[in-house]
Amino acid sequence: MDLREFIREYINMSRYVALGTLDGVLAVMGVTLTASGVAGAGGFGVDNYLIGLTGLSGGIALALSNAFGSFIGERAEETRTMRELERKMMMAEGKLDDTIIHQQARRRVYMSMFTHGFSSFMGAFVPVLPFLLIPDRVMATMVTVILCLIALVGLGLYLGRVSRENIYKTSLEIVIIGILIGIVSFILGGSH
Fold first, then answer.
1. For every one of its 192 residues, what pLDDT tens digit does the chain have, with 9 covering 90 and above?
2. How many angstroms separate the CA atoms of 170 and 18, rounded?
3. How much is the CA Rg of the chain, to the nearest whole Å?
4. Whether the Cβ atoms of residue 137 and residue 54 lie closer than 8 Å to each other
5. Which of 57, 116, 165, 191 is the least buried, fewest Cβ under 10 Å from its Cβ?
6. Entry pTM
């Protein structure tokens, strides 16, 4: 598979691109905003890059979890589909192993694993970057919230287009979810 084909297949797995990116943005936003809030509320002299690294470590854990969860779930689904096909074709179980059908199924499993994990990892950088680049904690927090909202609107537009639903409604739903997570993170981290 050449690079163009790989990129095309990656983009065609829109479900995992969207799920992974959404997970990365929302989960790491929650971790990062909570860490920022705790640092501010506690009066700790915590450097912003440490808050950013905290979020990034959560993003890495999330990416690995999503990748391996995707691998296990998709492998089970593909195996079940192959066994059903063997049964319908009145073949012994395992007869389709090492065939083109099996190779294609394995490729889908690995692509879903990579796509879900990589998209989660990339999404994690949206809330983390301001803390790695901006020394002022309050400014970094505000920039994080703004960047996350922009990313969520973009994801809503993307998902609305892919699903052929109302792009504005989809964006609004995703932004509301982001706001709810932001509020919970604020309450947990800095409202004391």
1. 788 887 877 777 777 888 899 999 999 999 998 888 888 877 777 899 999 999 999 999 999 999 999 999 999 999 999 899 888 888 888 888 888 988 988 988 999 999 999 999 999 999 999 999 999 999 999 999 999 999 999 988 888 888 788 888 988 999 999 899 888 887 777 654
2. 12
3. 20
4. no
5. 191
6. 0.82
